[in-house]
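Objective 1b. Sequence-to-structure analysis of Solute carrier family 26 member 6.
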Amino acid sequence: RRRDTQALLPVTQAMELRNRDYHVERPLMNQQQLEELGHQTSATRTYQWRTWFQCSRARARALLFQYLPVLSWLPRYPLRDWLLGDLLAGLSVAIMQLPQGLAYALLAGLPPVFGLYSSFYPVFVYFLFGTSRHISVGTFAVMSVMVGSVTESLAPDENFLQGVNATVDEVARDHFRVQLASTLSVLVGLFQVGLGLVRFGFVVTYLSEPLVRGYTTAASVQVFVSQLKYVFGLQLSSRSGPLSLIYTVLEVCSLLPQSVVGTVVTALVTG
């Protein structure tokens, strides 16, 4: 066996193996002796709690850096090497995010200015508490459509009609929709914190690739259909539930003669 092992090793390693003389001794133990030996080194519960509540300067600093990572990397930030590139990157992203945030606010059924709020504050919060250098934080089209389905179903235009001409009170409608979107964001955040505490992220490993591709494809179709009323300048009724997407397409086709020519031309040029 020793010759077979040396034949598989390089020459230098085989020479070192010849010159070494290994001598290993271990006591023979049965299962009971092994369990007793393993329990000898386990800490008592009182010692564990006492260690957990110990406080020192190093422990407090480690906890502070754990929950505020910006304090650990910002003092070591190389200004001369990275500042110019980061400024150019931030400027280019801001130029893209400005119209994108306005459009995603319309997808959520909110005033456009709230798209700018949601484009700035989440990134600023992640700057303080985030740990990844490559993650992208910001508004998301599919999430905006999902929020818009909630706001438009719970606060439709029909609930805010006023006057003889049955005009929509947009101020009251937008105010109520902002309350709905804020409440929804807080509830979703609480659910995410709870799922994170119980380590529920393992479910992602069971999602197959066809399922994820089907979801993203359906989401793109959903976003495309939700933009048709802005492309043609139409006023559509809010729909939700099964087959709402098909009903929306049929309503758009029936109202095509009422399209605004300037809006259509602008949409084609920008597209």
